[in-house]
Amino acid sequence: MRGLLTIGALSVVLFSPTAAAQAPESETTRIGDGVYQFRFRSHNNVFVVTSEGVVAFDPISSEAARLYAREIRRVAPDSPLLAIVYSHDHADHTTGADVLRTELGVQHDVPIIAHEAARAKIEAAGNADQPPPDVTFSGLMTLWFGGRRLELHYLGKSHSDNMIVALLPEERIAFAVDFVSNDRVGFQSLPDYHFPDFFEALERLRGLDFDTIVFGHGPSGDRAAIDRQIQYYADVRNAVTAAHRRGLTEDEAAAQIRLPAYQAWGAYEDWFELNVRAIYRWVAGGGGGGGGGGG
Q: Could you give the strand order of the β-sheet that contains 35-40, starting from the edge strand earlier in sequence?
């Protein structure tokens, strides 16, 4: 493996049916010098082209990986694949690494990098199309390729216990998957979310230095998109905490809590009530405290 690995010691807005029908199945967008966003249906990833080769994130699926490889070859026809990085262990983002390596004509010794907590979960899943990582880290890993710095940050438990965020400090671009998005409510009933760690991870994300952020689903955003997400979850948490203190049941809270400021957000009609229920169960179980602030 070329380049230098430095390991630190730190411990959709959803598309409408009409828009979705008109959008191509996949597309690639240049978002910075040598930095590209690849979209396959509703999933996004990024790849970074350096003078040494390409670092690719989240192959998504075996089907997506074939198109992903084609796009990498189109953008960087002579660049070798240097590494694959998994954002977290969930199979809908990190299946297809072997397909990606094969389609790019490289051997399977091209490393897969992930947070250390991801390996055991991927191995336990036993998905032959989702090979476990070869290289893991605990808190911060810095990749140096062709003079380009790429940081992998573990911000704590959020959506999974092994979610990482990529940061290109010089380009001021970040990549964050699933636990945050651009003006969309949380996914369904917030499965595999860890409270209160999730709220703390959002604040740590806001503390990273970037201007543009690519999300695992939906359009990219800027720093203000993170502020809005933090405010949304603070407002839900405060409303649920107040309802619980008034003695409302989960069903009553889900029926009564409405936050009109977010009605135009993606998936509000489908998932907002499920968000309320998930946070209610956490508050009722002893979490929540006095609520939280926002951006």
A: 26-32, 35-40, 43-49, 54-57, 81-85, 112-115, 135-137
CB atoms within 10 A of CB 184: 23
CB atoms within 10 A of CB 228: 19
Measure the CA dihedral 127/133/139/141, to 10°.
-140
Residues 156-203 have pLDDT tens digits of 999 999 999 999 999 999 999 999 999 999 999 999 999 999 999 999
Distance CA 280, CA 253 (A): 8
Is 70 exceeded by the pLDDT of residue 33? yes
Amino acid at 42: S
285: how many CB neighbours lie within 10 A of its CB?
9
Residue 149 backbone dihedrals phi, psi, to 5 degrees: -100, 130
- The answer, yes or no, to whether residue 58 has pLDDT greater than 60, is yes
Nearest-CA neighbor of 271 among 195, 186, 207? 186
Cβ 115 vs Cβ 162: under 8 Å: yes
In eight-state DSSP terms, residue 134 is: S
Cβ-contact 44, 217 below 8 angstroms: yes
Phi/psi for 37 (5° steps) reads -100, 130
